[in-house]
Design goal:
mainly alpha; two-stranded antiparallel sheet
Length: 161
């Protein structure tokens, strides 16, 4: 007996945007959140180092075969997020201009340089958050029955295809 999308999702239309957006996290302060799946996946937003000894041990072991963020990054490098956001937004706005895309008649036409900079910073923050939690999901939400690639650690194993 095969399982259908409707059986799994509880709705007929996989792309039903209203149904998708109706699924919310009711406890914004929760540190752990279980996501229903054919195999349970637990996401944690509690990044306090040392709180999960088994995970810390795995992390320290994995650092030996990967780059180590504590020692391989030049943390003394000054990073100006606002200047970076301004540079990225300038490139994107030039791309819109070159493509003949105008914001006339839209709320964006009234944005100041500060509005665009704030948007650029928020966009960077959102992108990093999506990347971090997407990677966490990719690494943690694999069914236990799938076998990792030879010689890989859980954090470097590509998802099964």
């Amino acid at each position: 007996m095969s399982t259908t999308d409707s059986d799994i999702l509880g709705r007929e239309d996989v792309n039903d945007l209203d149904a998708i957006l109706a699924i919310t996290n009711t406890d914004v302060e929760e540190a752990l959140h279980a996501v229903a799946d054919n195999a349970d996946a637990i996401f944690t937003w509690d990044y306090e180092k040392g709180k999960r000894p088994a995970l810390n041990k795995l992390y320290e072991k994995a650092k030996g075969s990967q780059w180590n963020g504590e020692t391989d990054l030049p943390w003394e490098t000054d990073v100006d997020q606002e200047e970076f956001a301004k540079a990225v937004i300038a490139i994107r706005r030039q791309g819109f201009h070159d493509a003949g895309i105008t914001f006339e008649g839209t709320p964006l036409a009234k944005w100041s340089e500060d509005d665009w900079t704030h948007f650029g910073i928020e966009n960077q923050n959102w992108s990093l958050s999506q990347f971090m939690h997407g990677e966490q999901g990719r690494c943690c939400a694999r069914p236990r029955s799938s076998r990792p690639c030879r010689g890989s650690t859980p954090s470097t194993t590509p998802p099964p295809r």
